[in-house]
Amino acid sequence: MLHKPAGWHSVEVRSSSGGEVLSRWIAVQFAAQARLPDGGLVHRLDQCTSGCMIAARDASVHGMLREAVSGRGSMHIKKVYLALVRPGIAPQGRFELVFSSRHKGSTKATVRRDGEGELGECSWRVVRAAEKTSDNGIDAATTPLAFDLIEVEIHGPGRRHQIRAGMAFTGHPLAGDALYRGAPLNPKWSAGCFTLHAWRVEIGDLLVESPRPTWAIV
After folding, report:
1. Could you tell me if 32 and 123 lie in one domain?
2. 0.70 cut: is pTM over it?
3. Rounded to whole angstroms, how far apart are CA atoms 23 and 34?
4. Are 95 and 189 in a shared domain?
């Protein structure tokens, strides 16, 4: 299990030129894993998403974990994220939506209640509700306390932008996620990234938590 900092790419892509890439770092630190696809990583996170990533150390385990992450294997993997969202979300809830890509060149995911696409399911619970403040200044409106902090669990295989697009569809986009019309967050809290953190991964009896980012401290 590895921790990916916000702003790092998971694997090499065309847009990663000059940026930090986790799979490249793995190949340098662990020479044996350089022979595995993507340095042994079995899934990806968006560049702005920080937190836990699963990597295998040999080919047989890599294949098994890939199957588990895709939802096809017998092994169950539980993934829980932290996110800041537009205030006023229900204390707990669940969505089951259909995700599909937009036309070529668009980075957004299209979300519908039904129709063609890939089914994505998440549940959430509020960890800390937004605090009301009498200070209407810009700084007060762009701090983590101005948003609801939630735990989000992905059920089944993850879809592209599942939490980001799914929460926006519910009317509660992530703080700092301009792509899905999320309200801005002061850059000092998230270095200009949206607020999504892969906090906890459970594989069988193994439980790993990645340290919370500053915007998620309760």
Report:
1. no
2. yes
3. 8
4. yes
Compute the distance between CA of residue 50 and CA of residue 55 in angstroms, rounded to an integer.
15
Contact of 108 with 66, CB cutoff 8 Å: no
**pLDDT in tens for each of the 218 residues of the chain?**
899 999 999 998 776 567 899 999 998 998 888 888 899 999 999 999 999 999 988 888 888 888 888 777 677 889 999 999 999 999 999 999 999 986 566 788 999 999 888 999 999 999 999 987 655 555 667 899 999 999 999 998 889 899 999 999 999 999 999 999 999 998 888 888 999 999 999 988 889 999 999 999 87
Q: Are residues 84 and 70 in the same domain?
A: no
Contact call for residues 81 and 124 (beta carbons, < 8 A): no
3-state secondary structure 46-75: CCCCEEEECECCCHHHHHHHHHHHCCCCCC
Domain that holds residue 110: 77-218
